[in-house]
Amino acid sequence: MALRERFRTRLRPWHGVMAVVFLAATAWSLRRPPTPTNVLMAVVGGLTGLLVFQFTVGNVWAYAVEYRNTGGRWTDLPFVAPFAVAAAGAGGTYLWTSSVAAAGWAAFWTFAVAAAVVALVAWLSVGYREASG
Asked: Where are the transmembrane segments (predicted)?
């Protein structure tokens, strides 16, 4: 698709979600009187919030879609396991630190590592089945 055609396509619902996230993060960051510096910092905070949202939710959604596209179901244990491990990691981190930010950070990285381990185990399992079959 040519670049010119990409700009002519309609906005998708995901773009609306990202706009809402940006506006909410900017509003959250703008809790002080609106001076030029505070507004600039609020916009930077909104962009940072959007970046974190896009990185985390976008990657988790891509994981779910790719799993489904390969014939898996969203109720399969290999799909659910990284989410369960991430929830446990987030809960444990929150109990240990009482920090929502630390719990979110731990949940993301626990999910990423657990998903990588599940992918590696599945890859090795399929390889051994093909070699012995």
From this structure: 12-30, 42-65, 77-96, 102-126
Q: How far does the chain reach from its first CA to its final CA, in angstroms?
A: 42
Handedness of CA 12, 50, 110, 100 (dihedral sign): negative
Low-confidence ranges of the chain (pLDDT < 70): 1-11, 128-133
pTM comes to 0.67
Separation CA 65–CA 55 (nearest Å): 15
Question: Count of CB atoms within 10 A of residue 122's CB?
Answer: 13
Residue in the structure block whose two tokens are 């619902």: 13
Answer yes or no: are the C-beta atoms of 120 and 100 closer than 8 Å: no
- Three-state SS for 38-96 is HHHHHHHHHHHHHHHHHHHHHHHHHHHHHHHHCCCCCCCHHHHHHHHHHHHHHHHHHHH
